[in-house]
Structures
1.
Amino acid sequence: MNENEMNNQAKKRSIGSAFIVILLVLVLCFGAGAGGAYLVLKTNGASVITTTTSTATQTTTSSKKDASAIAKKMTDSVVAITTEAMTTSNFWFGSQVVSGAGSGVIMSSDGYIITNAHVVNGASTIKVTTSDEKTYTAKLVGKYTQGDIAVIKINATGLSAATFGDSDKITQGQTAYAVGNPEGTFSGSITSGIVSALNRTITVSIDDDSSSSNNDNNQYSQYFGRTQSASTAVKLNVIQTDAAVSPGNSGGGLFDSNGTLIGIVNAKSSDSNSEGLGFAIPVNTALKIAKSLISKGTYTA
């Protein structure tokens, strides 16, 4: 092999080595990028590897509608409710005042508000705070414990009433927002989810102050007093949702993606191992009861 041939072979080897080096660099860079994305996603609880390219960034649009455009519409129509109930006199401490909290939905601009019967049962005083932080004393118009619906009235005008929808037309999987006063402290809160299921049947225990089954002369009442009469087991047909529901949300609204009322929130699962199990009375049922309570003071199923 002459000198020229040897030089050509050396050049070829040099070019090949350079190509291998470049290829290795590219592989390492790609691997580092994928590994970095994987680490970030793993840190946030995901396990999908994603890589980026020089093309336009791709974005994933959530199927859940942004509530910012309808938030005010919903929160303005929901009120915070606080109640006080007086226990009967007891041996140790005498009569005591017991406080409670819940939510309500404005039915009309002149002050009619729909809530749960269990929110106001036994209450000697009912206070309502609207979204503009004005507080009113409410009177009980009527309640139907077997349906867990009550109507109260405040002396006010120009209120932002909810837009009532048709609960017969809602579908499983559609967006749902729960609005209320969780923990009796965080009024005007919105949580989001979906309609998990329709036509669920649940049984709830509601203190019924109209019952006379509790004996005031028993030893428990004499020593500890009581605030309510015996509890009543009530079977209800409800909407199931995974929108977060907490104590204090009772009587608040379940809304669709347009801010239209589709249900009155009334319960959540009490099982500590369960998550995303909230329930609401369909608005068609609630409104039928409420209208009868306003016009007649009673409701007959």
2.
Amino acid sequence: MTRSEKSSEARLAWVDVAKGLCIILVVMMHATLGVEKAIGSETSLHAFIDWARPFRMPDFFLISGLFLAARIDRPWRSYLDTKVVHFAYFYVLWLTIQFALKAPGMVQESGATATLQDYLASYLIPFGTLWFIYLLMVYFVVAKLLRPVPKWIVLAVAALLHVAAPESGVFIVDEFSNRFVFFYSGYALAPFILSFADRLRAVPAAAMALGLVVWAAFNAVGVTSGVALVHGPDLVFSYIGIGAVIAFSVLVTQRTAGDVLAYCGRNSIAVYLAFTVFMGPVRIVLLKLTGGEAAAAIALLSALAGIVGALALQWAVKGTWAGFLFTRPDAFRLTPRREPLREPQAQPTAA
């Protein structure tokens, strides 16, 4: 690797940190909501989960589109291989795995026919936590189709769709309208975003930390008042929150916390796909052992189990026959494997 390549990777290290932060927040959200559903009441973590709502998924979608410009002009076959077939492989695989784990209880409750129907329906309406990569496949195709259209027009229409917030009851229509603006922002505004991150590197750490404290309070007021959750005004809070995540990521890069977050970010596919396999059983066991006491601690421990378990599973199967769990085999590729671009993983290859 040349000196310039090393410098570029160091400069973009914040991307992996931001992805790591987002995937941890996503796992915490699912862990907390799962515990709350089990005990029938909110935990002390609920306020924090709500506080992260304006920027948690918007930032994840934005990062997923951040380096799209490097690939969008590829021929359709190559593009579909990396941006659609890639995610479709993991969706089908982990949909089947997650469904198989839950099927015995579903069959007992609803019958085998209803369970099979639910499985087949998951190819139209995403199952559980896998909705993120389902939407990414759609977004990548739409972005490619809209390539000839000026970016500012697409971005404006995407923002209007978000503000309109259609509630048709059709998943793909409602979720596409709600979140496409953030994904496309990553693609359309990539030069500005990367330049913004570069400029932040020159800001004194103390000043950046103070700014993050002010933002945290501002975001809390917006969430508490409900303004940050209303379609229209929420765009302001989301984009400011995305900027804050970038600032935080730049701030902690090359620190121990940054290294941990970056590792989670580089391996976000493993965490996103497999965390429920470990989180659910740990939550059930802890709830039975404690009777629901210390619910917040149970949520945190089950989230930690989900993250560590997923990463450990990825490490354990790497280079073995089971490596297909996190690495797409050549048999499921439309084009030969390419050498990776010199950039941090911008997609959650997944969440």
3.
Amino acid sequence: MTTRPRTQVRVVIAGGGIGGLAAALAVGAHGHHVTVLERQPELTELGAGIQLAPNGLHALDVLGVGAEVRETAVPMTELRFMDGVSGEHVTSLPLTDGYRRRFRSPYVVVHRAELHLRLLDACRRQPRITLRAGAPVAGYAQTATVATAILENGERISADAIIGADGIHSRIRQQMVGDGSPRISGITAYRAVVPMADVPARVRRDAVTWWTGPDCHFVHYPISGGTLLNMAGSNADGTDTVFAGVPVQGDAVRAAMAPLPAVADLLSLADRWRAWVLLDRPPIDTWTDGRVALLGDAAHPMLHYAAQGACQALEDAVVLGDLLGHGGEPVPDVLRRYAEQRRDRTSAVQHVSRDSIRLWHAGGDAALTRNRVLREMTDDDLHDAIAWMHAPRVRGRHPSGATR
């Protein structure tokens, strides 16, 4: 079999978060040179727990870090759906034998910082990847043959392609699409992490548990090898301002979650929380401009209700790396194909993430109807409902042409 000659491509990635580092690994694996430019002074990741369905874990396996992530990830046995008003267990989506056979992987949870660190360490081991913190990208310029990232200090870094993985407030997207600020959902999210030793025995299970109520919901699950409990609540309070990681006292969180009496004892476990307003954007058709493309939250930011934000960014990265491959095709054509392959899928996940608010925040008769419908669903019904999201969707070719 004849192997195409390799053409090295130089890629600049704006953003050193999960999506940006994953893209660097995917592109670097094919022998291309990558420079990651991160706005913050250090390459770190904030936040707490993150859920990884089989499609996300499969992408991590392709990137070569799946085994390392699994070392501290906690495999879940079920997704538990609880009525936070009555305390009733409505249904559970099992994640053990049948689920793992069908989707060829477990469903795991992991600390966001741990996932980021695994990707970061893998990038540091790759000699073709250059990491630069404290290098905020303000925009780009391009000719027919070169794309140039323009930093806020005026420095210009040229390459064959620029990937905007710079998040929901992406400067690359701002220049490319010009669609203004993200959409404010009117929902405030509260997050805290507590030692598992402080948690009531009834909560110490390997499950993602959702407690739903009118205009709010609460979720918890173990992270860091089961030593910590990640807790997150959402309240549709109508907020219309943007804030992120703001310290909040426990009394304020307990007041916001008052419609969920079934979790009052869990809310009392933490007095220090942080709050975020939930943001997203509607799907767009424009992901590319010549030699420049968007990835992850810069392309398709979504609410967290489908727990697919990181998974979709990881899929983006694998597809991008595969298509760049040996580097023999014109870069603008490759980026257009990347967008065509990813746009419809991520758009569907964006829509279901927003539509899921009605599932999590129902009250009164709507909640009773929801509970009845969910109770009537079999395990196969529940698995069928999420198969389009959770099933691995990216192939992941080795540079040799083999698949993994």
